[in-house]
Design brief:
This protein has helices at 2-22, 32-41, 59-75, 89-101, 114-126, 150-164, 180-195, 212-226, 241-254, 268-274, 289-304, 351-359, and strands at 49-54, 79-84, 106-110, 131-134, 144-147, 169-174, 199-205, 235-238, 260-264, 281-286, 312-314, 318-321. The chain is of the alpha/beta class and 360 residues long. It folds into two domains: 49-147 and 289-316 and 346-359, Response regulator (Rossmann fold), CATH 3.40.50; 150-286, Response regulator (Rossmann fold, 3-Layer(aba) Sandwich). A six-stranded parallel beta sheet has the order 2-1-3-4-5-11, sandwiched between helices. Strands 7-6-8-9-10-12 form a six-stranded mixed beta sheet, with helices on both faces. Helix 3 (59-75) runs parallel beside helix 11 and helix 4 (89-101) packs parallel to helix 5 (114-126). The longest helix has 21 residues, at 2-22.
Length: 360
């Protein structure tokens, strides 16, 4: 009797085990077939955490640059955290340290100086975190640095100024020290003045603030009062589009149709101002800010993937002449229809990155 009882229990137990083995796994439980398939199909570059550490986030140029960064990271299946520093280099250094401590997979740097950032970047590199810097003064082995070809942009706009004025002009320069791209633009400016004795600088000013365009407008208004007569100022050369915006507004409000503005950088807001009727803003040289962000991300992902990336990358600038623009208003996304070479750069792409973008 006992034997039959134990045999019955044993039989029930065996049947239960066999039935249980045939049941589907509950959500969250390990499933060798499904999980191994998922791991095999997932691209090793997806899901990366990227930090963008910025010296400051001002104006539409910065906004479009950030858009380009986010767009490209998302196309690669990653996510990005933006650290802004309001122009405070100490805060920027702290933000860089915070990004490293958060265990990000890669770091993008926008502007900054070597004095503020070198130590933090060295720490990131030592921990195996790849870094790509844009328009920064960082000097650390293994870090890739992007720049816009600043001397070339300055030369493009200054040569146009010289042609328009027949080599005889009184100009106002708006520029500020302490930024790597500005320093490079200043080199071209000094060379230009040396080669063009008929062009004379009669005033210079400039400061990077949280209200750069508005502050520049106030300073330009003061310069216009100092030189109130037609012909006393031929042109304004602005080494940054935020400076140009302030100068243009001051010139327009003063009704000074005799003064032209030449600048560096380009955004949708800039383009709208350039296209206004009788705008004094006649030319600029720039790289598409969205493209800058996209290209910087591509080089970072090359480094994350173990690629051998050059340490210095120069982006090719484009000259934007107001006379080449149509009567109707266009944006930077449409600018390539009128200005050769604008936007949609493939720089920084590899076949693997294109595949990642297409197949994720």
């Amino acid at each position: 009797m006992k034997t039959n009882k134990y045999w019955l229990l044993f039989t029930i137990l065996v049947i239960g085990v066999l039935l249980g083995a045939c049941q589907p796994k509950a959500e969250g439980e390990a499933s060798t077939s499904s999980s191994s398939k998922g791991e095999a199909s997932e691209h090793p570059l997806t899901g990366k955490k990227i930090a963008l550490v910025m010296q400051q986030n001002l104006g539409t140029f910065s906004a479009q640059y950030i858009e380009g960064v986010k767009e490209q990271v998302e196309k690669f299946g990653g996510n990005v955290t933006v650290f802004t520093s309001e122009g405070d280099l100490s805060k920027m250094a702290s933000n860089l340290d915070a990004a490293v401590n958060q265990g990000v997979d890669g770091i993008l740097i926008d502007h900054g100086t070597k004095e503020a950032l070198n130590q933090g970047v060295e720490n990131a590199v030592a921990k195996g975190v790849p870094v790509v810097a844009f328009d920064a003064g960082v000097e650390v082995e293994g870090v890739t640095s992007l720049e816009q070809g600043d001397e070339k942009m300055a030369k493009m706009t200054l040569e146009k100024l010289a042609v328009d004025s027949n080599g005889d002009a009184n100009i106002v320069k708006i520029w500020v020290a302490g930024f790597a791209p500005m320093e490079r633009r200043q080199i071209a400016y000094e060379n230009f003045l040396g080669e063009n004795p008929g062009i004379k600088e009669i005033a210079t000013f400039g400061a990077a603030t949280q209200n750069t365009a508005l502050d520049t407008q106030s300073q330009m208004e003061a310069v216009l009062k100092k030189y109130p007569n037609k012909g006393e100022i031929t042109a304004v050369w602005a080494a940054w589009d935020e400076f140009a915006k302030g100068a243009v507004r001051a010139i327009e409000q003063a009704g000074r149709t005799d003064i032209k503005v030449y600048s560096i950088d380009m955004s949708d807001e800039d383009l709208q101002m350039i296209q206004n009727d009788n705008s004094p803003w006649v030319a600029s040289a720039a790289v598409d800010p969205k493209d800058i962000g996209r290209i910087q991300v591509r080089y970072l992902y090359q480094k994350i993937n173990g690629g051998n990336v050059e340490e210095k990358v120069v982006l090719e600038p484009v000259f934007v002449d107001a006379s080449k623009l149509p009567a109707e208003t266009v944006t930077t996304s449409e600018l390539s229809d009128y200005i050769e070479g604008w936007g949609a750069s493939d720089q920084g792409y590899t076949d693997e990155l294109k595949g990642l973008e297409e197949n994720r």
